[in-house]
Protein backbone atom coordinates (compact mmCIF):
# COMPACT_ATOMS: atom_id res chain seq x y z
CA UNK A 1 0.00 0.00 0.00
CA UNK A 2 1.38 3.40 -1.00
CA UNK A 3 2.41 5.75 1.79
CA UNK A 4 0.87 9.21 2.22
CA UNK A 5 4.21 10.75 3.20
CA UNK A 6 5.27 13.87 1.32
CA UNK A 7 8.56 12.52 -0.06
CA UNK A 8 10.80 14.12 -2.70
CA UNK A 9 11.45 12.50 -6.06
CA UNK A 10 13.72 9.55 -5.27
CA UNK A 11 16.08 7.45 -7.39
CA UNK A 12 17.26 4.12 -5.93
CA UNK A 13 20.97 3.42 -6.42
CA UNK A 14 22.30 0.11 -7.72
CA UNK A 15 23.12 -1.51 -4.36
CA UNK A 16 19.40 -1.77 -3.49
CA UNK A 17 18.24 -5.34 -4.16
CA UNK A 18 15.36 -6.25 -6.46
CA UNK A 19 13.23 -7.42 -3.52
CA UNK A 20 13.77 -4.12 -1.71
CA UNK A 21 12.97 -2.19 -4.88
CA UNK A 22 9.71 -4.06 -5.35
CA UNK A 23 8.71 -3.45 -1.74
CA UNK A 24 9.56 0.26 -1.89
CA UNK A 25 7.80 0.69 -5.24
CA UNK A 26 4.55 -0.28 -3.55
CA UNK A 27 5.06 2.20 -0.72
CA UNK A 28 6.71 5.23 -2.34
CA UNK A 29 4.85 6.89 -5.19
CA UNK A 30 7.63 9.39 -5.90
CA UNK A 31 10.20 6.83 -7.08
CA UNK A 32 11.67 7.53 -10.51
CA UNK A 33 13.83 5.54 -12.90
CA UNK A 34 15.19 8.71 -14.50
CA UNK A 35 18.24 9.92 -12.56
CA UNK A 36 17.96 13.39 -14.11
CA UNK A 37 14.57 13.95 -12.48
CA UNK A 38 15.56 12.89 -8.96
CA UNK A 39 16.05 15.19 -5.97
CA UNK A 40 17.21 12.43 -3.61
CA UNK A 41 19.43 9.45 -4.47
CA UNK A 42 18.86 6.71 -1.91
CA UNK A 43 21.01 3.63 -1.44
CA UNK A 44 23.37 1.61 0.72
CA UNK A 45 26.12 4.22 0.57
CA UNK A 46 28.19 5.30 3.56
CA UNK A 47 31.07 7.34 2.12
CA UNK A 48 31.11 10.60 0.18
CA UNK A 49 33.52 9.31 -2.47
CA UNK A 50 31.28 6.34 -3.14
CA UNK A 51 28.27 8.64 -3.46
CA UNK A 52 30.10 10.79 -6.01
CA UNK A 53 31.11 7.66 -7.90
CA UNK A 54 27.50 6.46 -8.09
CA UNK A 55 26.38 9.86 -9.41
CA UNK A 56 29.12 9.94 -12.04
CA UNK A 57 28.17 6.44 -13.11
CA UNK A 58 24.64 7.70 -13.73
CA UNK A 59 25.94 10.69 -15.68
CA UNK A 60 24.88 13.19 -12.99
CA UNK A 61 27.58 15.86 -12.74
CA UNK A 62 27.54 17.91 -9.53
CA UNK A 63 29.39 20.54 -7.52
CA UNK A 64 30.02 19.62 -3.89
CA UNK A 65 27.64 21.71 -1.76
CA UNK A 66 29.70 21.25 1.39
CA UNK A 67 32.93 22.38 -0.26
CA UNK A 68 33.91 26.04 0.39
CA UNK A 69 32.54 28.10 -2.47
CA UNK A 70 35.84 29.71 -3.39
CA UNK A 71 37.50 26.33 -3.87
CA UNK A 72 34.80 24.78 -6.01
CA UNK A 73 35.56 24.11 -9.65
CA UNK A 74 34.17 26.99 -11.69
CA UNK A 75 31.39 26.13 -14.11
CA UNK A 76 32.01 26.64 -17.79
CA UNK A 77 29.90 29.81 -17.84
CA UNK A 78 31.40 31.43 -14.72
CA UNK A 79 34.11 34.04 -14.93
CA UNK A 80 35.55 36.77 -12.77
CA UNK A 81 35.33 37.37 -9.02
CA UNK A 82 31.55 37.69 -9.06
CA UNK A 83 31.17 34.01 -9.90
CA UNK A 84 33.26 33.10 -6.86
CA UNK A 85 31.31 35.31 -4.48
CA UNK A 86 27.88 33.81 -5.19
CA UNK A 87 26.12 32.82 -1.99
CA UNK A 88 25.23 29.16 -1.60
CA UNK A 89 21.58 29.84 -0.88
CA UNK A 90 21.28 32.82 -3.19
CA UNK A 91 19.67 32.86 -6.62
CA UNK A 92 21.46 30.69 -9.14
CA UNK A 93 22.17 32.43 -12.45
CA UNK A 94 21.44 30.91 -15.78
CA UNK A 95 24.36 29.76 -17.87
CA UNK A 96 25.05 31.14 -21.32
CA UNK A 97 26.66 28.36 -23.32
CA UNK A 98 28.52 29.23 -26.49
CA UNK A 99 29.14 26.57 -29.11
CA UNK A 100 32.72 25.79 -30.10
CA UNK A 101 31.98 26.92 -33.64
CA UNK A 102 32.16 30.52 -34.88
CA UNK A 103 29.80 33.25 -33.71
CA UNK A 104 27.66 33.12 -36.81
CA UNK A 105 27.03 29.38 -36.44
CA UNK A 106 25.38 29.23 -33.02
CA UNK A 107 23.35 31.25 -30.57
CA UNK A 108 23.57 31.43 -26.79
CA UNK A 109 21.34 28.97 -24.99
CA UNK A 110 20.25 29.48 -21.38
CA UNK A 111 20.20 26.35 -19.26
CA UNK A 112 19.23 26.25 -15.57
CA UNK A 113 22.17 25.42 -13.31
CA UNK A 114 22.64 24.39 -9.70
CA UNK A 115 19.59 22.22 -8.93
CA UNK A 116 20.26 20.75 -5.47
CA UNK A 117 20.48 16.99 -4.94
CA UNK A 118 21.26 14.77 -1.97
CA UNK A 119 22.58 11.23 -1.60
CA UNK A 120 20.89 9.70 1.44
CA UNK A 121 21.25 6.39 3.25
CA UNK A 122 18.54 3.82 2.58
CA UNK A 123 17.88 3.64 6.33
CA UNK A 124 16.33 7.14 6.22
CA UNK A 125 13.67 6.02 3.77
CA UNK A 126 12.87 2.68 5.42
CA UNK A 127 12.71 4.19 8.91
CA UNK A 128 10.53 7.06 7.69
CA UNK A 129 8.09 4.55 6.19
CA UNK A 130 8.14 2.45 9.35
CA UNK A 131 7.36 5.44 11.61
CA UNK A 132 4.84 7.01 9.26
CA UNK A 133 6.62 10.37 9.14
CA UNK A 134 9.42 11.99 7.17
CA UNK A 135 12.42 11.89 9.50
CA UNK A 136 15.00 14.70 9.69
CA UNK A 137 18.03 14.13 7.47
CA UNK A 138 20.56 14.59 10.26
CA UNK A 139 22.95 11.65 10.20
CA UNK A 140 21.54 10.22 6.97
CA UNK A 141 22.97 12.55 4.31
CA UNK A 142 26.11 11.18 2.68
CA UNK A 143 26.58 13.88 0.04
CA UNK A 144 25.00 17.21 -0.93
CA UNK A 145 25.61 18.90 -4.24
CA UNK A 146 24.20 20.92 -7.09
CA UNK A 147 23.74 19.63 -10.61
CA UNK A 148 25.86 21.13 -13.36
CA UNK A 149 24.56 20.80 -16.87
CA UNK A 150 25.62 22.57 -20.04
CA UNK A 151 24.43 21.62 -23.49
CA UNK A 152 25.48 23.61 -26.54
CA UNK A 153 22.93 24.07 -29.28
CA UNK A 154 23.41 25.05 -32.87
CA UNK A 155 21.55 27.84 -34.55
CA UNK A 156 19.11 26.57 -37.12
CA UNK A 157 19.83 27.65 -40.70
CA UNK A 158 17.74 30.46 -42.09
CA UNK A 159 14.61 29.48 -43.99
CA UNK A 160 15.36 28.69 -47.60
CA UNK A 161 19.00 27.79 -46.95
CA UNK A 162 19.91 24.42 -48.39
CA UNK A 163 21.95 21.88 -46.39
CA UNK A 164 24.71 22.13 -49.01
CA UNK A 165 24.97 25.90 -48.53
CA UNK A 166 25.04 25.53 -44.75
CA UNK A 167 27.79 22.90 -44.88
CA UNK A 168 29.82 24.97 -47.33
CA UNK A 169 29.64 28.05 -45.10
CA UNK A 170 30.82 26.03 -42.11
CA UNK A 171 33.78 24.61 -44.02
CA UNK A 172 34.68 28.11 -45.22
CA UNK A 173 34.53 29.41 -41.64
CA UNK A 174 36.79 26.63 -40.36
CA UNK A 175 39.38 27.28 -43.08
CA UNK A 176 39.28 31.02 -42.40
CA UNK A 177 39.94 30.53 -38.67
CA UNK A 178 42.77 28.09 -39.40
CA UNK A 179 44.46 30.62 -41.72
CA UNK A 180 44.14 33.31 -39.06
CA UNK A 181 45.77 31.05 -36.48
CA UNK A 182 48.70 30.37 -38.82
CA UNK A 183 49.11 34.07 -39.56
CA UNK A 184 49.04 34.99 -35.86
CA UNK A 185 50.97 32.41 -33.75
CA UNK A 186 49.93 34.21 -30.56
CA UNK A 187 46.39 32.94 -31.08
CA UNK A 188 47.47 29.32 -31.19
CA UNK A 189 47.42 27.44 -27.86
CA UNK A 190 50.82 27.36 -26.20
CA UNK A 191 52.64 24.13 -25.51
CA UNK A 192 52.43 24.84 -21.79
CA UNK A 193 48.75 24.04 -22.00
CA UNK A 194 49.70 20.47 -22.89
CA UNK A 195 52.32 19.84 -20.26
CA UNK A 196 50.18 17.48 -18.22
CA UNK A 197 48.40 14.28 -19.16
CA UNK A 198 45.58 12.99 -17.03
CA UNK A 199 44.65 9.34 -16.87
CA UNK A 200 41.24 8.56 -15.47
CA UNK A 201 39.46 5.50 -14.16
CA UNK A 202 36.84 3.71 -16.27
CA UNK A 203 34.12 5.83 -14.71
CA UNK A 204 33.28 9.20 -16.19
CA UNK A 205 35.19 12.12 -14.79
CA UNK A 206 37.04 10.17 -12.10
CA UNK A 207 40.61 11.42 -12.47
CA UNK A 208 43.19 9.08 -11.07
CA UNK A 209 46.70 10.32 -11.75
CA UNK A 210 48.40 13.25 -13.43
CA UNK A 211 51.87 12.97 -14.88
CA UNK A 212 54.14 15.80 -15.92
CA UNK A 213 55.41 15.57 -19.50
CA UNK A 214 57.79 17.42 -21.70
CA UNK A 215 56.78 20.51 -23.64
CA UNK A 216 55.88 18.29 -26.59
CA UNK A 217 52.07 17.92 -26.59
CA UNK A 218 50.73 14.36 -26.31
CA UNK A 219 49.97 12.55 -29.53
CA UNK A 220 46.34 12.54 -30.54
CA UNK A 221 44.47 9.28 -30.79
CA UNK A 222 43.51 8.98 -34.43
CA UNK A 223 40.19 7.67 -35.63
CA UNK A 224 40.85 5.54 -38.68
CA UNK A 225 38.71 5.41 -41.79
CA UNK A 226 38.41 1.65 -41.35
CA UNK A 227 36.64 2.27 -38.06
CA UNK A 228 34.02 4.39 -39.81
CA UNK A 229 33.80 2.03 -42.78
CA UNK A 230 33.02 -0.80 -40.38
CA UNK A 231 29.74 0.80 -39.42
CA UNK A 232 28.80 1.37 -43.07
CA UNK A 233 29.86 -1.86 -44.72
CA UNK A 234 29.56 -4.47 -41.97
CA UNK A 235 26.83 -5.39 -39.54
CA UNK A 236 28.04 -5.37 -35.93
CA UNK A 237 27.70 -8.66 -34.08
CA UNK A 238 24.76 -8.66 -31.66
CA UNK A 239 25.15 -8.37 -27.91
CA UNK A 240 24.02 -11.69 -26.38
CA UNK A 241 21.18 -11.61 -23.87
CA UNK A 242 23.40 -12.95 -21.09
CA UNK A 243 25.60 -9.84 -21.36
CA UNK A 244 22.74 -7.66 -20.18
CA UNK A 245 23.08 -9.02 -16.64
CA UNK A 246 25.34 -7.34 -14.08
CA UNK A 247 26.48 -10.65 -12.58
CA UNK A 248 29.39 -12.38 -14.33
CA UNK A 249 28.37 -15.71 -12.75
CA UNK A 250 25.45 -15.74 -15.22
CA UNK A 251 27.69 -15.47 -18.29
CA UNK A 252 30.01 -17.90 -20.11
CA UNK A 253 33.55 -16.50 -19.97
CA UNK A 254 36.19 -18.60 -21.79
CA UNK A 255 39.85 -18.75 -20.84
CA UNK A 256 40.92 -17.37 -24.24
CA UNK A 257 38.29 -14.81 -25.36
CA UNK A 258 38.28 -13.26 -28.86
CA UNK A 259 39.52 -9.92 -27.46
CA UNK A 260 42.20 -11.41 -25.21
CA UNK A 261 44.97 -9.00 -26.26
CA UNK A 262 42.95 -5.95 -25.24
CA UNK A 263 41.88 -7.67 -22.01
CA UNK A 264 45.56 -8.27 -21.20
CA UNK A 265 46.20 -4.52 -21.50
CA UNK A 266 43.33 -3.80 -19.10
CA UNK A 267 44.71 -6.36 -16.65
CA UNK A 268 48.03 -4.52 -16.57
CA UNK A 269 46.24 -1.29 -15.68
CA UNK A 270 44.17 -3.07 -13.04
CA UNK A 271 47.31 -4.52 -11.46
CA UNK A 272 48.74 -1.01 -11.19
CA UNK A 273 45.50 0.15 -9.54
CA UNK A 274 45.76 -2.73 -7.09
CA UNK A 275 49.36 -1.98 -6.19
CA UNK A 276 48.60 1.71 -5.64
CA UNK A 277 45.49 1.04 -3.52
CA UNK A 278 42.81 2.34 -5.91
CA UNK A 279 39.90 0.17 -4.75
CA UNK A 280 37.28 1.80 -6.96
CA UNK A 281 39.57 1.49 -9.99
CA UNK A 282 40.17 -2.20 -9.24
CA UNK A 283 36.47 -2.93 -9.19
CA UNK A 284 35.71 -0.86 -12.28
CA UNK A 285 38.44 -2.50 -14.36
CA UNK A 286 37.52 -5.97 -13.05
CA UNK A 287 33.94 -5.43 -14.20
CA UNK A 288 35.04 -4.23 -17.64
CA UNK A 289 37.50 -7.13 -18.02
CA UNK A 290 34.83 -9.69 -17.13
CA UNK A 291 32.34 -8.16 -19.57
CA UNK A 292 34.71 -7.90 -22.54
CA UNK A 293 36.00 -11.41 -21.85
CA UNK A 294 32.42 -12.70 -22.08
CA UNK A 295 31.71 -10.95 -25.41
CA UNK A 296 31.87 -13.83 -27.92
CA UNK A 297 32.91 -11.83 -31.00
CA UNK A 298 35.99 -9.90 -31.99
CA UNK A 299 35.44 -6.18 -31.43
CA UNK A 300 36.21 -3.96 -34.42
CA UNK A 301 34.59 -0.66 -33.48
CA UNK A 302 35.31 1.28 -30.25
CA UNK A 303 31.66 2.31 -30.13
CA UNK A 304 30.76 -1.32 -29.44
CA UNK A 305 32.78 -1.16 -26.20
CA UNK A 306 30.59 1.53 -24.63
CA UNK A 307 27.48 -0.54 -25.40
CA UNK A 308 28.66 -3.35 -23.13
CA UNK A 309 27.61 -3.26 -19.44
CA UNK A 310 30.30 -1.91 -17.14
CA UNK A 311 32.30 -0.34 -19.99
CA UNK A 312 32.07 3.44 -20.20
CA UNK A 313 33.72 6.11 -22.36
CA UNK A 314 37.08 5.54 -20.66
CA UNK A 315 37.28 1.91 -21.79
CA UNK A 316 36.10 2.97 -25.26
CA UNK A 317 38.95 5.51 -25.44
CA UNK A 318 41.45 2.87 -24.34
CA UNK A 319 40.26 0.53 -27.08
CA UNK A 320 40.53 3.28 -29.68
CA UNK A 321 44.09 3.85 -28.48
CA UNK A 322 44.70 0.09 -28.57
CA UNK A 323 43.71 0.06 -32.24
CA UNK A 324 45.72 3.12 -33.23
CA UNK A 325 48.89 2.01 -31.40
CA UNK A 326 48.97 -1.49 -32.87
CA UNK A 327 47.83 -3.36 -29.77
CA UNK A 328 49.31 -1.09 -27.09
CA UNK A 329 47.81 1.23 -24.48
CA UNK A 330 50.00 4.05 -23.20
CA UNK A 331 48.96 3.73 -19.59
CA UNK A 332 49.64 -0.01 -19.58
CA UNK A 333 53.06 0.54 -21.17
CA UNK A 334 53.88 3.29 -18.67
CA UNK A 335 52.89 1.01 -15.79
CA UNK A 336 55.12 -1.75 -17.12
CA UNK A 337 58.15 0.56 -17.21
CA UNK A 338 57.50 2.33 -13.89
CA UNK A 339 60.34 1.71 -11.43
CA UNK A 340 57.99 2.21 -8.47
CA UNK A 341 55.49 -0.34 -9.74
CA UNK A 342 58.34 -2.74 -10.50
CA UNK A 343 59.39 -2.62 -6.84
CA UNK A 344 55.80 -2.98 -5.66
CA UNK A 345 55.35 -6.04 -7.89
CA UNK A 346 58.43 -7.69 -6.37
CA UNK A 347 57.12 -7.14 -2.85
CA UNK A 348 53.55 -8.15 -3.74
CA UNK A 349 54.80 -11.46 -5.15
CA UNK A 350 56.36 -12.39 -1.81
CA UNK A 351 54.22 -15.06 -0.19
CA UNK A 352 52.27 -13.52 2.69
CA UNK A 353 52.59 -9.92 1.43
CA UNK A 354 49.43 -8.10 0.33
CA UNK A 355 49.34 -4.82 -1.59
CA UNK A 356 49.16 -2.65 1.56
CA UNK A 357 52.25 -4.34 3.00
CA UNK A 358 54.03 -3.97 -0.35
CA UNK A 359 53.40 -0.22 -0.24
CA UNK A 360 54.66 -0.03 3.34
CA UNK A 361 57.90 -1.73 2.24
CA UNK A 362 58.31 0.82 -0.54
CA UNK A 363 57.57 3.73 1.79
CA UNK A 364 60.41 2.58 4.03
CA UNK A 365 62.78 3.13 1.14
CA UNK A 366 63.14 -0.52 0.15
CA UNK A 367 63.35 -1.27 -3.56
CA UNK A 368 64.20 -4.98 -3.92
CA UNK A 369 64.55 -8.24 -2.01
CA UNK A 370 68.07 -7.36 -0.87
CA UNK A 371 66.67 -4.31 0.94
CA UNK A 372 64.00 -6.45 2.60
CA UNK A 373 66.62 -8.94 3.82
CA UNK A 374 69.13 -6.31 4.94
CA UNK A 375 66.81 -3.84 6.65
CA UNK A 376 63.63 -5.69 7.54
CA UNK A 377 64.27 -9.41 7.96
CA UNK A 378 63.50 -9.42 11.69
CA UNK A 379 60.21 -7.59 11.11
CA UNK A 380 58.90 -10.16 8.62
CA UNK A 381 56.43 -12.83 9.65
CA UNK A 382 57.45 -16.47 9.38
CA UNK A 383 55.38 -16.89 6.21
CA UNK A 384 57.00 -13.82 4.63
CA UNK A 385 60.49 -15.05 5.52
CA UNK A 386 59.76 -18.37 3.82
CA UNK A 387 58.37 -16.44 0.84
CA UNK A 388 61.61 -14.45 0.53
CA UNK A 389 63.79 -17.54 1.02
CA UNK A 390 62.12 -19.46 -1.82
CA UNK A 391 61.07 -16.42 -3.85
CA UNK A 392 62.44 -17.52 -7.23
CA UNK A 393 61.15 -21.08 -6.93
CA UNK A 394 57.67 -20.02 -5.88
CA UNK A 395 57.42 -17.74 -8.93
CA UNK A 396 57.87 -20.73 -11.25
CA UNK A 397 54.58 -21.90 -12.76
CA UNK A 398 53.47 -25.51 -12.44
CA UNK A 399 52.51 -27.60 -15.48
CA UNK A 400 49.32 -29.66 -15.44
CA UNK A 401 51.06 -33.07 -15.12
CA UNK A 402 52.94 -31.80 -12.06
CA UNK A 403 49.72 -30.48 -10.52
CA UNK A 404 48.06 -33.85 -11.04
CA UNK A 405 51.02 -35.72 -9.54
CA UNK A 406 50.92 -33.61 -6.36
CA UNK A 407 47.15 -34.06 -6.02
CA UNK A 408 47.38 -37.84 -6.49
CA UNK A 409 49.92 -38.09 -3.66
CA UNK A 410 47.70 -36.07 -1.32
CA UNK A 411 44.69 -38.28 -2.10
CA UNK A 412 46.76 -41.44 -1.58
CA UNK A 413 47.81 -40.28 1.89
CA UNK A 414 44.19 -39.44 2.76
CA UNK A 415 42.97 -42.89 1.68
CA UNK A 416 45.78 -44.46 3.70
CA UNK A 417 44.21 -42.87 6.78
CA UNK A 418 40.72 -44.10 5.84
CA UNK A 419 39.49 -45.38 2.45
CA UNK A 420 36.74 -43.65 0.48
CA UNK A 421 37.96 -40.07 0.05
CA UNK A 422 37.24 -38.18 -3.17
CA UNK A 423 39.32 -35.33 -4.57
CA UNK A 424 38.99 -32.47 -7.07
CA UNK A 425 41.74 -30.12 -8.23
CA UNK A 426 40.24 -26.63 -8.22
CA UNK A 427 41.58 -23.15 -9.02
CA UNK A 428 43.16 -22.22 -12.33
CA UNK A 429 43.88 -25.86 -13.18
CA UNK A 430 40.17 -26.68 -13.27
CA UNK A 431 39.46 -23.57 -15.36
CA UNK A 432 41.82 -24.95 -18.01
CA UNK A 433 45.09 -23.12 -17.39
CA UNK A 434 48.14 -24.88 -18.78
CA UNK A 435 50.31 -23.42 -16.00
CA UNK A 436 49.29 -22.71 -12.41
CA UNK A 437 50.81 -20.57 -9.70
CA UNK A 438 49.81 -23.01 -6.95
CA UNK A 439 47.79 -26.19 -6.42
CA UNK A 440 44.30 -26.12 -4.84
CA UNK A 441 43.01 -29.53 -3.75
CA UNK A 442 39.55 -30.23 -2.26
CA UNK A 443 39.04 -33.51 -0.39
CA UNK A 444 35.77 -34.90 0.98
CA UNK A 445 34.14 -38.13 2.16
CA UNK A 446 30.56 -39.45 2.29
CA UNK A 447 31.03 -40.13 6.01
CA UNK A 448 31.17 -36.72 7.71
CA UNK A 449 33.06 -38.13 10.69
CA UNK A 450 35.90 -38.90 8.26
CA UNK A 451 36.41 -35.21 7.42
CA UNK A 452 36.23 -34.00 11.02
CA UNK A 453 39.76 -32.96 12.10
CA UNK A 454 41.25 -34.79 9.11
CA UNK A 455 43.48 -31.89 8.08
CA UNK A 456 45.92 -32.25 11.00
CA UNK A 457 46.40 -35.99 10.46
CA UNK A 458 46.81 -35.56 6.70
CA UNK A 459 49.45 -32.84 6.98
CA UNK A 460 51.37 -34.88 9.56
CA UNK A 461 51.39 -37.88 7.21
CA UNK A 462 52.70 -35.78 4.32
CA UNK A 463 55.38 -34.21 6.52
CA UNK A 464 56.56 -37.63 7.67
CA UNK A 465 56.94 -38.61 4.02
CA UNK A 466 59.03 -35.43 3.51
CA UNK A 467 56.61 -34.00 0.94
CA UNK A 468 55.79 -30.88 2.99
CA UNK A 469 58.75 -28.74 4.02
CA UNK A 470 56.80 -25.93 5.73
CA UNK A 471 53.25 -25.66 7.08
CA UNK A 472 52.26 -22.01 6.76
CA UNK A 473 48.67 -22.10 8.00
CA UNK A 474 46.64 -24.97 9.39
CA UNK A 475 43.03 -24.12 10.23
CA UNK A 476 40.36 -26.31 11.82
CA UNK A 477 37.64 -23.62 11.76
CA UNK A 478 35.01 -25.88 10.19
CA UNK A 479 35.60 -28.80 12.55
CA UNK A 480 35.55 -26.45 15.54
CA UNK A 481 31.99 -25.37 14.73
CA UNK A 482 30.74 -28.90 14.04
CA UNK A 483 31.28 -28.74 10.24
CA UNK A 484 28.31 -26.40 9.81
CA UNK A 485 28.06 -23.46 7.40
CA UNK A 486 29.63 -20.28 8.72
CA UNK A 487 27.37 -18.07 10.83
CA UNK A 488 25.46 -15.51 8.78
CA UNK A 489 26.41 -12.85 11.32
CA UNK A 490 30.07 -13.58 10.66
CA UNK A 491 30.75 -14.45 14.32
CA UNK A 492 31.86 -18.04 13.87
CA UNK A 493 35.14 -18.91 15.62
CA UNK A 494 38.17 -19.23 13.40
CA UNK A 495 40.78 -21.33 15.15
CA UNK A 496 43.99 -22.64 13.69
CA UNK A 497 46.34 -25.26 15.06
CA UNK A 498 49.27 -23.06 14.04
CA UNK A 499 47.81 -19.56 14.08
CA UNK A 500 45.91 -19.70 17.37
CA UNK A 501 43.66 -16.86 16.19
CA UNK A 502 39.94 -16.48 16.38
CA UNK A 503 37.58 -14.06 14.74
CA UNK A 504 34.87 -13.56 12.17
CA UNK A 505 34.34 -15.16 8.84
CA UNK A 506 36.54 -14.66 5.84
CA UNK A 507 36.76 -15.68 2.19
CA UNK A 508 37.04 -19.32 3.16
CA UNK A 509 36.12 -20.94 6.47
CA UNK A 510 36.69 -24.62 5.75
CA UNK A 511 39.41 -26.72 7.34
CA UNK A 512 42.52 -26.15 5.27
CA UNK A 513 46.29 -26.16 5.22
CA UNK A 514 48.54 -23.82 3.25
CA UNK A 515 51.86 -25.60 2.83
CA UNK A 516 55.13 -25.50 0.92
CA UNK A 517 55.59 -28.71 -1.06
CA UNK A 518 58.76 -30.28 -2.44
CA UNK A 519 58.89 -33.57 -4.29
CA UNK A 520 61.64 -35.89 -3.02
CA UNK A 521 64.69 -36.60 -5.14
CA UNK A 522 64.62 -39.67 -7.32
CA UNK A 523 66.42 -42.66 -5.83
CA UNK A 524 70.18 -42.49 -6.40
CA UNK A 525 70.10 -38.94 -7.77
CA UNK A 526 72.67 -36.70 -6.04
CA UNK A 527 73.96 -33.22 -6.58
CA UNK A 528 77.41 -32.13 -5.51
CA UNK A 529 77.74 -29.08 -3.33
CA UNK A 530 81.42 -28.22 -2.91
CA UNK A 531 80.76 -25.77 -0.09
CA UNK A 532 79.32 -28.50 2.12
CA UNK A 533 81.52 -31.46 1.12
CA UNK A 534 83.85 -30.96 4.09
CA UNK A 535 80.98 -31.67 6.47
CA UNK A 536 80.39 -35.10 4.95
CA UNK A 537 83.89 -36.65 5.06
CA UNK A 538 84.66 -35.40 1.58
CA UNK A 539 81.70 -37.19 0.01
CA UNK A 540 79.27 -35.18 -2.13
CA UNK A 541 76.08 -34.63 -0.07
CA UNK A 542 72.58 -35.37 -1.25
CA UNK A 543 70.70 -32.12 -1.96
CA UNK A 544 67.12 -31.92 -3.18
CA UNK A 545 67.02 -29.62 -6.21
CA UNK A 546 63.30 -29.98 -6.92
CA UNK A 547 61.51 -26.62 -6.72
CA UNK A 548 59.29 -25.69 -3.78
CA UNK A 549 55.57 -25.28 -4.59
CA UNK A 550 52.59 -23.64 -2.91
CA UNK A 551 49.80 -26.14 -2.15
CA UNK A 552 46.42 -25.49 -0.51
CA UNK A 553 44.59 -28.53 0.89
CA UNK A 554 40.89 -27.93 1.64
CA UNK A 555 38.69 -30.38 3.55
CA UNK A 556 34.91 -30.15 3.08
CA UNK A 557 32.10 -32.16 4.69
CA UNK A 558 29.91 -33.93 2.14
CA UNK A 559 26.77 -31.92 2.92
CA UNK A 560 28.33 -28.74 1.45
CA UNK A 561 31.01 -30.14 -0.85
CA UNK A 562 29.26 -28.67 -3.92
CA UNK A 563 29.59 -25.19 -2.42
CA UNK A 564 33.27 -25.85 -1.73
CA UNK A 565 33.96 -26.94 -5.31
CA UNK A 566 32.04 -23.97 -6.72
CA UNK A 567 33.66 -21.52 -4.30
CA UNK A 568 37.21 -22.61 -5.12
CA UNK A 569 36.89 -22.86 -8.91
CA UNK A 570 35.74 -19.56 -10.46
CA UNK A 571 37.85 -16.52 -11.27
CA UNK A 572 37.98 -13.64 -8.78
CA UNK A 573 35.20 -11.57 -10.37
CA UNK A 574 33.05 -14.68 -10.86
CA UNK A 575 33.33 -15.40 -7.12
CA UNK A 576 32.61 -11.78 -6.19
CA UNK A 577 29.51 -11.65 -8.37
CA UNK A 578 28.34 -15.08 -7.19
CA UNK A 579 28.23 -13.79 -3.61
CA UNK A 580 26.50 -10.59 -4.70
CA UNK A 581 23.96 -12.56 -6.73
CA UNK A 582 23.21 -14.82 -3.77
CA UNK A 583 22.81 -11.84 -1.45
CA UNK A 584 20.66 -9.57 -3.61
CA UNK A 585 18.75 -12.07 -5.75
CA UNK A 586 18.41 -15.14 -3.53
CA UNK A 587 18.63 -13.68 -0.02
CA UNK A 588 21.55 -15.93 0.91
CA UNK A 589 24.95 -15.48 2.44
CA UNK A 590 27.17 -17.80 0.41
CA UNK A 591 30.71 -19.00 0.88
CA UNK A 592 32.56 -22.25 0.27
CA UNK A 593 31.28 -23.70 3.56
CA UNK A 594 27.63 -23.43 2.47
CA UNK A 595 24.73 -20.98 2.43
CA UNK A 596 22.55 -19.39 5.10
CA UNK A 597 19.43 -17.27 4.84
CA UNK A 598 20.00 -13.57 5.40
CA UNK A 599 16.56 -13.40 7.06
CA UNK A 600 17.10 -15.68 10.04
CA UNK A 601 20.53 -17.27 9.56
CA UNK A 602 19.24 -20.81 9.00
CA UNK A 603 21.31 -23.20 6.90
CA UNK A 604 19.94 -23.75 3.38
CA UNK A 605 20.49 -27.22 1.90
CA UNK A 606 21.43 -26.34 -1.68
CA UNK A 607 22.57 -29.88 -2.49
CA UNK A 608 19.54 -31.88 -1.24
CA UNK A 609 21.84 -33.59 1.23
CA UNK A 610 19.11 -34.36 3.75
CA UNK A 611 16.93 -36.21 1.21
CA UNK A 612 19.35 -37.61 -1.38
CA UNK A 613 23.11 -37.01 -0.91
CA UNK A 614 24.97 -36.46 -4.17
CA UNK A 615 26.90 -39.50 -5.46
CA UNK A 616 30.00 -37.45 -6.30
CA UNK A 617 31.47 -33.97 -5.95
CA UNK A 618 30.65 -32.82 -9.49
CA UNK A 619 26.98 -33.74 -9.09
CA UNK A 620 26.90 -31.80 -5.82
CA UNK A 621 28.26 -28.71 -7.59
CA UNK A 622 25.60 -28.94 -10.32
CA UNK A 623 22.91 -29.11 -7.64
CA UNK A 624 24.17 -25.82 -6.21
CA UNK A 625 23.76 -24.15 -9.62
CA UNK A 626 20.21 -25.52 -9.88
CA UNK A 627 19.26 -24.43 -6.36
CA UNK A 628 20.55 -20.90 -7.03
CA UNK A 629 18.61 -20.81 -10.33
CA UNK A 630 21.82 -20.32 -12.28
CA UNK A 631 22.58 -21.96 -15.59
CA UNK A 632 25.43 -24.41 -15.11
CA UNK A 633 28.71 -23.11 -16.47
CA UNK A 634 31.60 -25.56 -16.88
CA UNK A 635 34.80 -24.46 -15.13
CA UNK A 636 36.36 -23.39 -18.44
CA UNK A 637 33.59 -20.76 -18.76
CA UNK A 638 34.27 -19.12 -15.38
CA UNK A 639 37.47 -17.32 -16.41
CA UNK A 640 36.53 -13.76 -15.50
CA UNK A 641 40.10 -12.78 -14.62
Automatic annotation (TrEMBL):
Regions that span the bilayer: none
Gene Ontology terms: cellular component: nucleus
Pfam families named among the record's database cross-references: DNA_pol_B_palm, DNA_pol_B_thumb, DNA_pol_lambd_f, HHH_8
E.C. code: 2.7.7.7
Catalytic activity, as annotated: DNA(n) + a 2'-deoxyribonucleoside 5'-triphosphate = DNA(n+1) + diphosphate
Lineage: Eukaryota, Fungi, Dikarya, Ascomycota, Pezizomycotina
Main location: nucleus
Family note: Belongs to the DNA polymerase type-X family.
Protein name as annotated: DNA polymerase
GO biological processes: double-strand break repair via nonhomologous end joining
DNA-binding in keyword set: no
Compositionally biased region (Polar residues): 189-205, 532-545
Region of interest (Disordered), residue spans: 64-92, 149-168, 184-232, 525-549
Domain of life: Eukaryota
Chain's role: DNA polymerase that functions in several pathways of DNA repair. Involved in base excision repair (BER) responsible for repair of lesions that give rise to abasic (AP) sites in DNA. Also contributes to DNA double-strand break repair by non-homologous end joining and homologous recombination. Has both template-dependent and template-independent (terminal transferase) DNA polymerase activities. Has also a 5'-deoxyribose-5-phosphate lyase (dRP lyase) activity.
Regions of compositional bias (Basic and acidic residues) in chain numbering: 64-73, 82-91
Record-annotated BRCT domain positions: 97-142
Keyword Nucleus recorded: yes
UniProt xrefs under CDD domains: NT_POLXc
Alphabetical UniProt keywords: DNA damage, DNA repair, DNA-directed DNA polymerase, Nucleotidyltransferase, Nucleus, Transferase
GO molecular function, one term: metal ion binding
Compartment list: Nucleus
